[in-house]
Every structure is written in structure tokens, then in C-alpha cells.
Amino acid sequence: MAKDTPPRWDRKMQQRLARGEAAALGELYDRFASLVHNLAHRVLDDNEAADQITREVFGYVWENPDAYDPKQGSMRSWVARLTHKQAVHRLRQQEAAAHAGNGGGSADELEDLEERVRRASVAARADYIVTSMPSSLRAALQLAYRERRDYRQAASDLDISADEARRRLRLGLQLLSTAHTRPLPGGSSPPGPQPGRGRTR
What we know:
Layout: H1 8-18, H2 22-44, H3 47-63, H4 75-101, H5 107-132, H6 135-145, H7 151-158, H8 162-177
Helix pairs in contact: 2-3, 2-4, 2-5, 3-4, 4-5, 6-7, 6-8, 7-8
């Protein structure tokens, strides 16, 4: 099978959305809504804004299913990139409006905005990595970092060997370390959600 052939679910979902199947949008929402909301909230730190981004992203996917390019990665990755791009755009708009209300931003304030965007982007990528990694790695990381278990305790809780627990923790941490250096997966970012474009129903 060709490397760039999308998984069957992704390909069928794109076809169903292109045919205008409302049930397909519901299925897509059930699968990815929590990912979209969590990524948006990581960037914006605002539930209402994250809700709005979630609506915008799924609206864009519904209106523009052909914008998904299987060669650029999975549909999950595409939806995550759309979310990240839209959330960062919203953050920049909010900050620009706040600075304009204060008579314009100084160089230091603009630098602070860029740092906030960078930190939010890293946090969003880390969230995406954690939710995308195999459940065995995610479980080991959660035990180690949320419940403060050492690798021996994690091994006991997971009913695996200590060596396997160490391996899973090491691999999980290696994946997380890429949040600082890599964009959300799937190659170059597609056009973000644009209200009023695409098909109408």
C-alpha cells in the first residue's frame, strides 16, 4: 500500500462529508470534538472561546471537505492543525484589540504576545501528542506525572515489567519533547476556517 494512502475511515469520512451527509458530521464531531475543544482551550484559556473555535472548525470541515489532503496526514491531524491555526489567530486578534484599546502596543507588549503564542502553541502540540500516542504510553505517563508513581509502581499498576515501564516512559517523553521543535503533524498548514466560504446547504 502506498505510504500516502489515507486510512479507510478518513477516506470514507471525506467522501461522506463531500456528499453532504449530516450523520458523517455528527460522527466526526463525536470523534474529534474533545480534541478540538482541548487544543483551543490550551491556546486561549477560555471555555467560551474554545466552544466558538470548535463550532468554527467543524463548520469549516462541513463546508470544505475537499480541503483535506490525505497526502498531508490523517484527518485527525488536519482537524488539529485547523484548530491550532484558528485558535492562534483568535489569540492574536484578542491581544491586538486589547493593545489598540490601550493606545497601541509597545515593542515589549508585542514581544510578550509572541511569547504567549509560542507557549500556547507548545502546550497545544503537547496535548495533541499525548492524545495521539498509543494508550500504553499515555497510561504510563499519566501514572508517572499525574499520580506521581515511579517506574516500579507504574509497572505494578500496569501489570508489566519494570523494564517495559521504563521503555514506555522514555518513549513517551521522547515524543513529548518534540512539542518544542515540531509543528502539529501533517505538513504545511491548510487554509484556516473562513466563515462564509465553501458550499452552502
